[in-house]
Known about the structure:
The protein is mainly alpha-helical. The protein is built from eleven helices and five strands, in the order αααααααβαβββαβαα.
Amino acid sequence: MCLKKLGAVTMSKIDQVIAAINEITKADDEELEELLEDFIAPDETINAINEYEKKVAKRLRAQKKRFADGIKDYIGKDDDSSIKDIFNYVKQDLFAADEFSEELSIDTQDILELTVGQIAGIVMDDIDEEVVFEELSGRTIIWIEQWSEELGNLMQLHSHEAIEKEFTRAIEAGDGIDTVINNIKDLPQFDRQRARTTAITEILTAHSVAQYEGFLQSPAVKKKKWKHSGTKAIEPRENHMDMDGQEVEVEEQFALVGADGGTYYCDYPRDTTLPAGERIKCHCTMGPVVDPDIIKLTPEEKEQIRQEVLAGLS
């Protein structure tokens, strides 16, 4: 009887946790729907964000566990080690054995290829149904490969730096290794919010890349226009608001005056060449400026133009 009660209580708590997670996800999605109402393919974008968030969160949990378990194993073999000895072991052995960057790079490349291809097709169909998306350009494929690897390396580096800071703090404060392990488990570098922020930033970047790809492959698109997302559910950046309506030729770059006063050139919002402060939590998008005369060309003429563009993007 007691076991039944315990089981019921346990399941009740699990159900409550699942319900709470579902409510948070639902609220997040509703907020995203509002933020992305000016985006093309908002449903596909939100689905990709949620899928990628799960993958990033899983990788962060595994990374945290490897460090916590690795430290405990080392202590188990030599419980007389000083915290400085353990710190050296972490830096020399656990950091070197960390597989997070490779794992996340694979996940990122897979979802970027899928998302960019899917949304580029929707973008092109929305501009002109007679010009059909068939494949990503060589330039975009190379970008996906390179950025996936770079993102994995950057996120791994930030996790390692956070662990180093915790050991340095503990050594200075005279804290024990148990405190260090507990604090590592609570580091924001491993939490779900980091996964969420990363997923939103990178999938919205994929959305911008897809738009740019679609604009380049659509013969009728002559310019691109920066569109600010407005002030709904966010604190807008004044410098991004100033970008609203700026038009440039498709292959020209936007000139964004950063919050630091510097001028940054980018192909689209959240361009990976921009500083993190101009990318993270940016919800801007773009729109095409179409030449109506080219829209009137025959499908064969437009396809020839598209093929010529693709050849130049290999």
